[in-house]
Amino acid sequence: MCGVFGIYGHSEAAKLAYLGLHALQHRGQESAGIVSSDGRQLKLFRDMGHVIDVFPESQLEELKGVHAIGHVRYSTSGGSALRNAQPIAIEYSKGTLAVAHNGNLTNADALRKRLEDAGSIFQTSSDTEVIVHLIAKSKQQRVVDRIADALGQVEGAYSLLCLTEDSLIAVRDPLGIRPLCLGKLRGTEVPVLASEPTSFELIDADFVRDVAPGEMLIVSPEGTTSLFPFAPVARRTCIFEFVYFARPDSVLDGVSVYEARKNLGRSLAREHGVDADVVIPVPDSGVPATIGYAQESGIPFEMGLVRSHYVGRTFIEPKQSIRHFGVRLKLSPVGETLRGKRVVVVDDSIVRGTTSRKIVKMLRDAGAKEVHMRIASPPTEWPCYYGVDTPTRSELIAATHTVEEINQYITSDTLAYLTLDSLKHSVLAARESHLRRENGASAFPLPDPASSKRHLTVAQSLTETSFCHACWSGDYPVKFQPQERKEQLPLLHV
Fold first, then answer.
1. Which residues are CB-contacts of 472 (< 8 A; sequence separation ≥ 6)?
2. What pLDDT digit, counting tens, does each position of 209-246 carry?
3. What domains sit in the chain, N to C, each tagged with a CATH number?
4. Fewer CB under 10 Å: which end of the chain, C or N?
5. Which residues are catalytic?
6. Greater confidence, 273 or 480?
7. Which of left, alpha, beta for 353 (phi over 0: left; psi -120 to 50: alpha)?
């Protein structure tokens, strides 16, 4: 998924970027990087590992400057290697430029071939470098126009931060697939940008608004301006952000993630209730949905699994071997809660099925009498090509197996998923509740559209049709023909 952070006009820009990235660590754990600018030149440091390990205080002291952008990486396009760490910084004919990107480009391979045929030499296997080459080769004069020209040629998902010597440029793709938020340091006019507003509270900043789909924000010595350089399209915000990836304390596009996840649990209890003694979450992402399930069903909420917080999110670890080992390393059962009990287990999703199988076995070994799996999203049947690491259908157990077959494979007593309609309604209900609490509004607040009349034709409020849910429905907002194997993932028998 990746996380991006930017700040403009502060004497300790790199240190605040470090804190901002720390609050986005859940979005990527493989590498971290920061580029700073003192108004004349850019300074870059990036390395493999977590933010706290990559940036000791001595390293931050080297990144002097008043502007900075940062990135935490979760690899999708391009392998997990230092050469693919971001931000990417270059020198070209118009000066220096650094780019930090959250998302995935669906036409990156075709663009890369075209650029290489024209003489471009790539240093990484990341799709982000395609954007950098397009910017460098653009015939436009102003950097803003070069960025718009480059992004006009790409397809897919991007929330992008670009840093020059004296300007910070933020862009969100016209579909609005990935989140991007604008804030400002409390008591100042210093702007900050981040994938999620979780970064803002940590650095004593206030949330201002979400960057709108298709919007380009330019922060420069002349102030902050907003442009809409792309043709308007219907928005398709990634709904999986509200199920798993975003932190529960985030509010994205007017949706309280915590409230949305509780609504998912309530809907799950109404659709697939079962007689049980306790309901437990798969921590941490399953906790809010489990609270909602317990509230709706009346079954007591208990912590039947305890998570070690010294282990990262196993779903986004880059190697399958680590992912398998990480289940036992990450979770431990609470025998006193489970012994002799009929247990409902609530999780956010099942991707490959191997983790769920291990969890069910762990609960039975701890004495659970029955184990009923309840999933707060629909079956994941299709790969995501916009920034989630599910590259082929062959890795997705729901793509080739029925719910009952999956139930047999993970060895639960019963298994049930939330329907897509209930998922969408749960998220929209959370949005309406949040907006009423905040300002009594029932429509998403828009930025000032004076800079682009075309923006007036774009409906920015979230509706049932404004989500990307391709991982469950196969309805991809960007049409393309991915190359992948189609073999069936075999079930493993006990």
1. 377, 378, 379, 380, 381, 382, 420
2. 999 999 999 999 999 999 999 999 999 999 999 999 99
3. 3-231 (3.60.20.10), 251-421 (3.40.50.2020)
4. C
5. 2
6. 273
7. left
